[in-house]
Design brief:
This is AraC family transcriptional regulator. Pfam families: Cass2 (PF14526), HTH_18 (PF12833). Keywords: DNA-binding, Transcription, Transcription regulation. InterPro entries: AraC_E-bd (IPR010499), Cass2 (IPR029441), Homeodomain-like_sf (IPR009057), HTH_AraC (IPR018060), HTH_AraC-typ_CS (IPR018062), MarA-like (IPR050959), Reg_factor_effector_dom_sf (IPR011256), Tscrpt_reg_AraC-type_HTH (IPR020449). The chain is globular, with a radius of gyration of 22 Å. It has 9 helices and 9 strands. α1 (2-16) runs antiparallel to α2 and α2 packs across α3 (35-46). It has 2 domains: 2-104, Orthogonal Bundle (Arc Repressor Mutant, subunit A); 130-284, Multidrug-efflux Transporter 1 Regulator Bmrr, Chain A, CATH 3.20.80. It has helices at residues 2-16, 24-30, 35-46, 50-68, 73-79, 85-96, 153-167, 170-177, 234-247; strands at 130-135, 138-148, 183-191, 196-204, 214-218, 221-229, 253-255, 260-264, 275-284. A hairpin with a 4-residue loop joins β3 and β4. Strands 1, 2, 3, 4, 5, 6, 7, 8 and 9 form a 9-stranded antiparallel β-sheet that branches. It is α+β, with helices and mostly antiparallel strands. It starts with a helix and ends with a strand.
Protein backbone atom coordinates (compact mmCIF):
# COMPACT_ATOMS: atom_id res chain seq x y z
CA UNK A 1 0.00 0.00 0.00
CA UNK A 2 1.39 3.39 -0.99
CA UNK A 3 0.93 5.14 2.35
CA UNK A 4 2.65 2.23 4.15
CA UNK A 5 5.73 2.58 1.93
CA UNK A 6 5.77 6.33 2.53
CA UNK A 7 5.70 5.90 6.30
CA UNK A 8 8.54 3.37 6.05
CA UNK A 9 10.52 5.80 3.89
CA UNK A 10 10.04 8.52 6.51
CA UNK A 11 11.25 6.21 9.28
CA UNK A 12 14.29 5.31 7.17
CA UNK A 13 15.02 9.02 6.69
CA UNK A 14 14.76 9.72 10.42
CA UNK A 15 17.03 6.82 11.26
CA UNK A 16 19.68 7.96 8.75
CA UNK A 17 19.63 11.51 10.14
CA UNK A 18 19.37 10.70 13.85
CA UNK A 19 22.49 12.73 14.71
CA UNK A 20 21.37 15.80 12.74
CA UNK A 21 18.90 18.57 13.68
CA UNK A 22 15.31 17.52 13.07
CA UNK A 23 14.13 18.75 9.67
CA UNK A 24 10.38 18.21 9.73
CA UNK A 25 9.87 19.57 6.23
CA UNK A 26 12.24 16.96 4.79
CA UNK A 27 10.77 14.13 6.86
CA UNK A 28 7.27 14.98 5.66
CA UNK A 29 8.51 15.43 2.10
CA UNK A 30 9.87 11.89 2.21
CA UNK A 31 6.36 10.73 3.09
CA UNK A 32 4.87 12.90 0.29
CA UNK A 33 2.86 14.74 2.91
CA UNK A 34 2.48 18.15 4.49
CA UNK A 35 4.42 18.54 7.78
CA UNK A 36 1.25 19.01 9.84
CA UNK A 37 -0.55 16.01 8.36
CA UNK A 38 2.45 13.73 8.69
CA UNK A 39 3.03 14.69 12.32
CA UNK A 40 -0.65 14.26 13.18
CA UNK A 41 -0.76 10.89 11.41
CA UNK A 42 2.40 9.72 13.14
CA UNK A 43 1.14 10.74 16.57
CA UNK A 44 -2.26 9.10 16.10
CA UNK A 45 -0.82 5.88 14.68
CA UNK A 46 2.01 5.41 17.18
CA UNK A 47 0.88 7.23 20.33
CA UNK A 48 4.07 9.32 20.44
CA UNK A 49 5.05 12.58 18.81
CA UNK A 50 7.86 12.63 16.27
CA UNK A 51 9.97 14.73 18.63
CA UNK A 52 9.41 12.18 21.40
CA UNK A 53 10.21 9.28 19.09
CA UNK A 54 13.47 10.87 17.91
CA UNK A 55 14.42 11.81 21.48
CA UNK A 56 13.92 8.23 22.68
CA UNK A 57 15.73 6.72 19.70
CA UNK A 58 18.69 9.06 20.23
CA UNK A 59 18.94 8.12 23.90
CA UNK A 60 18.76 4.44 22.95
CA UNK A 61 21.59 4.82 20.43
CA UNK A 62 23.58 6.95 22.86
CA UNK A 63 23.31 4.25 25.54
CA UNK A 64 24.55 1.63 23.09
CA UNK A 65 27.58 3.73 22.22
CA UNK A 66 28.44 4.37 25.85
CA UNK A 67 28.11 0.68 26.74
CA UNK A 68 30.13 -0.60 23.78
CA UNK A 69 32.77 2.06 23.02
CA UNK A 70 35.25 4.24 24.94
CA UNK A 71 33.89 7.47 23.40
CA UNK A 72 33.62 10.40 25.84
CA UNK A 73 30.27 11.27 27.38
CA UNK A 74 30.63 14.84 26.09
CA UNK A 75 31.13 13.64 22.53
CA UNK A 76 28.08 11.38 22.73
CA UNK A 77 26.01 14.23 24.16
CA UNK A 78 26.98 16.57 21.33
CA UNK A 79 26.50 13.87 18.70
CA UNK A 80 22.89 13.34 19.73
CA UNK A 81 21.91 16.98 19.94
CA UNK A 82 22.54 17.99 23.56
CA UNK A 83 24.26 21.29 24.22
CA UNK A 84 25.84 20.24 27.50
CA UNK A 85 26.75 17.10 29.45
CA UNK A 86 24.32 18.26 32.16
CA UNK A 87 21.33 18.36 29.81
CA UNK A 88 22.32 15.01 28.36
CA UNK A 89 22.75 13.44 31.81
CA UNK A 90 19.32 14.68 32.90
CA UNK A 91 17.60 13.23 29.81
CA UNK A 92 19.64 10.03 30.00
CA UNK A 93 18.77 9.44 33.66
CA UNK A 94 15.08 10.01 32.93
CA UNK A 95 15.17 7.48 30.09
CA UNK A 96 17.44 4.83 31.58
CA UNK A 97 17.37 5.41 35.32
CA UNK A 98 21.15 5.71 35.56
CA UNK A 99 23.83 8.25 34.62
CA UNK A 100 25.68 8.11 31.28
CA UNK A 101 28.87 7.09 33.10
CA UNK A 102 27.07 4.26 34.86
CA UNK A 103 25.99 2.91 31.48
CA UNK A 104 29.58 1.71 31.05
CA UNK A 105 29.53 -0.39 34.20
CA UNK A 106 28.93 -4.12 33.59
CA UNK A 107 25.58 -5.41 34.81
CA UNK A 108 23.68 -2.14 34.70
CA UNK A 109 20.38 -2.32 32.86
CA UNK A 110 19.56 0.01 29.98
CA UNK A 111 16.24 0.59 28.28
CA UNK A 112 15.86 0.34 24.52
CA UNK A 113 13.23 2.15 22.48
CA UNK A 114 13.24 0.09 19.28
CA UNK A 115 12.83 1.55 15.85
CA UNK A 116 9.19 1.61 14.86
CA UNK A 117 7.86 -0.29 11.89
CA UNK A 118 4.50 -0.18 10.14
CA UNK A 119 2.75 -3.29 8.92
CA UNK A 120 -0.28 -3.75 6.71
CA UNK A 121 -3.37 -4.78 8.64
CA UNK A 122 -6.44 -5.62 6.57
CA UNK A 123 -9.38 -3.64 7.92
CA UNK A 124 -12.29 -1.74 6.48
CA UNK A 125 -14.83 -4.54 6.95
CA UNK A 126 -16.99 -2.07 8.87
CA UNK A 127 -18.31 1.00 7.07
CA UNK A 128 -17.31 4.49 8.20
CA UNK A 129 -20.07 7.06 8.05
CA UNK A 130 -18.74 10.48 7.05
CA UNK A 131 -19.56 13.53 4.97
CA UNK A 132 -17.56 16.42 3.48
CA UNK A 133 -18.81 19.85 4.55
CA UNK A 134 -17.85 23.34 3.41
CA UNK A 135 -18.41 25.74 6.30
CA UNK A 136 -17.71 29.40 6.92
CA UNK A 137 -15.77 30.49 9.98
CA UNK A 138 -17.64 30.78 13.27
CA UNK A 139 -17.05 32.23 16.74
CA UNK A 140 -16.96 30.20 19.92
CA UNK A 141 -17.00 31.08 23.61
CA UNK A 142 -15.43 28.78 26.17
CA UNK A 143 -12.68 27.83 28.56
CA UNK A 144 -9.18 27.08 27.32
CA UNK A 145 -6.28 25.08 28.69
CA UNK A 146 -2.73 24.49 27.47
CA UNK A 147 -1.35 20.98 27.64
CA UNK A 148 1.74 19.07 26.60
CA UNK A 149 1.50 16.19 24.13
CA UNK A 150 4.69 14.67 25.52
CA UNK A 151 4.32 11.17 26.99
CA UNK A 152 0.57 11.34 26.29
CA UNK A 153 0.05 14.08 28.88
CA UNK A 154 -2.83 15.58 26.86
CA UNK A 155 -4.73 12.28 27.09
CA UNK A 156 -4.64 12.58 30.87
CA UNK A 157 -5.20 16.31 31.22
CA UNK A 158 -8.15 16.76 28.85
CA UNK A 159 -10.50 14.36 30.72
CA UNK A 160 -9.52 16.09 33.98
CA UNK A 161 -10.34 19.44 32.37
CA UNK A 162 -13.83 18.20 31.42
CA UNK A 163 -14.31 16.88 34.95
CA UNK A 164 -13.31 20.22 36.47
CA UNK A 165 -15.62 22.17 34.14
CA UNK A 166 -18.51 19.91 35.06
CA UNK A 167 -17.85 20.31 38.77
CA UNK A 168 -17.23 24.07 38.96
CA UNK A 169 -20.27 25.18 36.95
CA UNK A 170 -18.37 26.04 33.76
CA UNK A 171 -20.24 23.43 31.73
CA UNK A 172 -23.66 24.66 32.89
CA UNK A 173 -22.71 28.26 32.12
CA UNK A 174 -21.64 27.30 28.59
CA UNK A 175 -24.90 25.43 28.04
CA UNK A 176 -26.65 28.69 28.92
CA UNK A 177 -24.41 30.77 26.62
CA UNK A 178 -24.96 28.33 23.75
CA UNK A 179 -28.70 28.19 24.17
CA UNK A 180 -28.64 24.53 25.17
CA UNK A 181 -27.20 23.45 21.83
CA UNK A 182 -24.09 21.46 20.89
CA UNK A 183 -20.98 21.48 23.08
CA UNK A 184 -17.57 21.46 21.39
CA UNK A 185 -14.24 20.00 22.45
CA UNK A 186 -11.66 21.81 20.29
CA UNK A 187 -7.99 20.96 19.69
CA UNK A 188 -6.34 24.16 18.46
CA UNK A 189 -2.90 25.76 18.15
CA UNK A 190 -1.15 22.41 17.86
CA UNK A 191 2.61 22.95 17.99
CA UNK A 192 4.33 19.71 17.03
CA UNK A 193 7.82 21.07 17.60
CA UNK A 194 7.03 22.24 21.15
CA UNK A 195 4.72 19.24 21.68
CA UNK A 196 1.87 21.40 22.97
CA UNK A 197 -1.72 22.18 22.07
CA UNK A 198 -4.58 24.36 23.27
CA UNK A 199 -7.83 22.64 24.17
CA UNK A 200 -11.19 24.40 24.42
CA UNK A 201 -14.50 23.37 25.91
CA UNK A 202 -16.79 25.75 24.07
CA UNK A 203 -20.06 26.57 22.35
CA UNK A 204 -20.86 28.48 19.18
CA UNK A 205 -21.70 32.08 20.06
CA UNK A 206 -21.39 35.50 18.45
CA UNK A 207 -21.93 37.25 21.79
CA UNK A 208 -19.05 38.70 23.83
CA UNK A 209 -17.46 36.20 26.19
CA UNK A 210 -18.79 36.46 29.77
CA UNK A 211 -16.36 37.28 32.54
CA UNK A 212 -13.97 34.39 33.12
CA UNK A 213 -14.43 33.00 29.60
CA UNK A 214 -12.61 33.57 26.30
CA UNK A 215 -13.60 33.64 22.65
CA UNK A 216 -11.93 32.63 19.41
CA UNK A 217 -12.79 32.06 15.77
CA UNK A 218 -12.71 28.69 14.05
CA UNK A 219 -11.71 29.53 10.45
CA UNK A 220 -13.60 28.54 7.34
CA UNK A 221 -12.59 25.11 6.10
CA UNK A 222 -13.53 21.98 4.25
CA UNK A 223 -14.39 19.45 6.94
CA UNK A 224 -14.51 15.69 7.01
CA UNK A 225 -17.24 14.89 9.50
CA UNK A 226 -17.41 11.43 11.11
CA UNK A 227 -20.28 10.05 13.15
CA UNK A 228 -19.78 8.22 16.43
CA UNK A 229 -22.61 6.13 17.88
CA UNK A 230 -22.31 4.61 21.33
CA UNK A 231 -21.27 5.40 24.90
CA UNK A 232 -18.50 7.87 25.57
CA UNK A 233 -15.55 7.87 25.55
CA UNK A 234 -14.91 4.46 23.96
CA UNK A 235 -17.08 4.98 20.88
CA UNK A 236 -15.49 8.26 19.80
CA UNK A 237 -11.97 7.03 20.61
CA UNK A 238 -12.58 4.14 18.24
CA UNK A 239 -13.68 6.59 15.54
CA UNK A 240 -10.52 8.67 15.98
CA UNK A 241 -8.37 5.56 15.60
CA UNK A 242 -10.17 4.45 12.43
CA UNK A 243 -9.91 7.92 10.87
CA UNK A 244 -6.12 7.79 10.94
CA UNK A 245 -5.62 4.06 10.50
CA UNK A 246 -8.13 3.54 7.70
CA UNK A 247 -9.78 6.67 6.31
CA UNK A 248 -6.83 8.97 5.66
CA UNK A 249 -4.62 6.22 4.15
CA UNK A 250 -7.48 5.12 1.90
CA UNK A 251 -8.55 8.52 0.54
CA UNK A 252 -7.12 11.47 -1.38
CA UNK A 253 -7.34 13.77 1.64
CA UNK A 254 -4.92 14.95 4.27
CA UNK A 255 -5.24 17.10 7.38
CA UNK A 256 -5.39 20.80 6.48
CA UNK A 257 -3.66 21.87 9.68
CA UNK A 258 -6.39 23.89 11.38
CA UNK A 259 -8.31 23.23 14.60
CA UNK A 260 -10.25 19.99 14.88
CA UNK A 261 -13.14 19.35 17.20
CA UNK A 262 -15.64 16.91 18.64
CA UNK A 263 -19.30 17.98 18.58
CA UNK A 264 -21.50 16.77 21.44
CA UNK A 265 -25.27 17.24 21.05
CA UNK A 266 -27.54 17.25 24.12
CA UNK A 267 -28.28 13.73 25.33
CA UNK A 268 -26.94 10.94 27.50
CA UNK A 269 -23.25 10.40 26.61
CA UNK A 270 -23.32 6.99 28.32
CA UNK A 271 -26.17 5.71 26.14
CA UNK A 272 -25.71 3.04 23.51
CA UNK A 273 -27.46 5.27 20.97
CA UNK A 274 -25.64 8.52 21.81
CA UNK A 275 -24.56 10.17 18.58
CA UNK A 276 -21.75 12.72 18.35
CA UNK A 277 -19.27 13.80 15.67
CA UNK A 278 -15.59 14.35 14.89
CA UNK A 279 -14.80 17.32 12.61
CA UNK A 280 -11.38 17.43 10.92
CA UNK A 281 -10.26 20.14 8.43
CA UNK A 282 -9.06 18.44 5.26
CA UNK A 283 -7.64 19.24 1.84
CA UNK A 284 -6.97 17.24 -1.28
CA UNK A 285 -3.45 15.84 -1.49
CA UNK A 286 -1.30 17.85 -3.87
Amino acid sequence: MEWLNRMKDALDYMERHMTEPVNMDEIAKTACSSPFHFQRMFNMLTGVTIAEYIRKRRLTLAAQELAMTPVRVLDVALKYGYDSPEAFAKAFRKAHGITPSAAREPGNSLKAFPRLSFHLSLKGDKEMEYRIVQQEGFSVVGKKMETSCREGENLRQIPLFWKKCNEDGTYDKLVEVGGGKDMLGICAEVNHEQETLSYWIAVKSEAPAPEGFSSTVIPAATWAVFSSIGPMPNAIQSVWARIFQEWFPGTGYEHAGGPEFELYPPGDPSGDDYRCEVWIPVMKKS
